[in-house]
Write a structure and sequence with these properties.
It is built from 13 helices and nine strands. It is an alpha+beta fold. It has two domains: about 200 residues, no CATH class; about 110 residues, Endonuclease, Chain A.
């Protein structure tokens, strides 16, 4: 679900009324717009004027255009085009690998000095737009053919920075809302986009981001249960229903399963945070217990988690590890669907395992 935010000034402009303050769009000058159009065309944008029509415009017009064509990938490309313009702005940047990019992201969000650049194919950029709203851009170019973009917009909400009579703060706030309408589409191709308040930046765990080999913010946040008060307010509290009978799919008694899942969690490889998020989502969805530390063939190619009868596995991932590439080829040659935790979504994993179980049952 995508959410759009508009200000009262946006409404007044859209209605044709006079507004004292200038709009926060476009968020940069002509050179930046030119760079945005150029990249937009490179990634499949059909018309460079799309950015003028749908992005550098009143958020109400953006919302109406989305309702007319809610293709998330179309809007992702437009968001990337808009963000590309920010790369021409005065900025601080560094490069990192997936295992250490979290430190760079945290520093960028807090406005601190960025760590020394290292190899790894991931660029982190912190740049303010012309409204003074800082954005942290993360461009994962490990696959040079199709870089993955993520972006985080931050608003300074400290008491000393928030004053209703401060036009600079009002512009930053309006720009923060404007960018939020766009960056939310980055998850359509494996990136992350979010709005953050400075006071809550410490609640963001960079390891959850897809670029850090996490499951991505959408899945990480969706996996968290609502508290009782919020669930009641939303009308989501229901009478407990009897659990349906489950066919024999290898799932053990619930109490035993809880103990075995606890064992799985305790034995997970600690260097890959996405695994724990994925496993906790598995538990919530009632997925059959996997075999941990499975080894394929005479070479003993190891999977962190596996369902051998279904030929489905979760692997540890390192895009720069030759041994991992050989392992992936071995699993593919043996007819397995084997991916890293970052590459699996819980919905797809559930669908694959369920489909495999049904196929296995039908063939008996």
């Amino acid at each position: 679900m995508y959410v759009f935010a508009v200000t009262w000034d946006d409404v007044q402009r859209w209605c044709g009324n006079d507004v004292k303050a200038d709009p926060v769009w476009p968020p940069y000058q002509e050179n930046a717009k030119r760079a945005g159009r150029q990249l937009y065309q490179q990634i499949g944008g059909t018309d460079p004027d799309d950015l003028n029509t749908y992005v550098w415009t009143n958020p109400i017009d953006t919302l109406l255009a989305y309702l007319a064509n809610p293709d998330a990938d179309v809007w992702r490309r437009r968001a990337v085009g808009a963000l590309a313009g920010m790369l021409t702005r005065p900025a601080t940047k560094t490069t990192a690998a997936s295992h250490n990019v979290g430190a760079a992201i945290s520093a960028a969000l807090y406005g601190a000095a960025l760590p020394t650049a290292t190899t790894g194919g991931i660029t982190v950029v912190r740049a303010p737009d012309t409204n003074g709203c800082p954005l942290t851009l993360i461009v994962d170019a490990r696959d040079a053919r199709q870089p993955t973009w993520s972006a985080l917009a931050v608003i300074d909400d400290r008491p000393e920075s928030v004053r209703d009579d401060d036009p600079d703060h009002q512009r930053r706030w309006a720009a923060w809302l404007y960018w939020g309408n766009l960056v939310q589409f980055l998850d359509a191709a494996g990136g992350d986009g979010a709005q953050l308040a400075l006071s809550t930046v410490d609640t963001l765990e960079p390891a959850e981001l897809a670029v850090s080999e996490g499951t991505g913010l959408v899945l990480a946040r969706r996996a968290q249960d609502l508290d009782a008060e919020t669930a009641t307010w939303l009308g989501l509290v229901r009478e407990a229903e009897p659990e349906p009978e489950v066919a024999d799919t290898g799932v053990v008694d619930k109490s035993e399963a809880d103990e075995r899942w606890s064992e799985v969690l305790s034995l997970l490889f600690p260097g890959e945070s996405a695994l724990e998020s994925l496993v906790r989502a598995m538990i919530a969805h009632g997925i059959p217990l996997p075999e941990q530390g499975y080894e394929l063939g005479d070479a003993g190619w190891q999977a962190e988690l596996a369902w051998p009868s279904r030929r489905i596995a979760v692997l540890l991932g390192d895009a720069f590890d030759q041994e991992a590439e050989d392992r992936d080829r071995a699993y593919a040659a043996a007819g397995w669907d084997a991916r890293t935790a970052r590459q699996w979504s819980i919905d797809e994993l559930v669908e694959k395992i369920t489909a495999s179980a049904e196929t296995s049952g039908a063939s008996r």
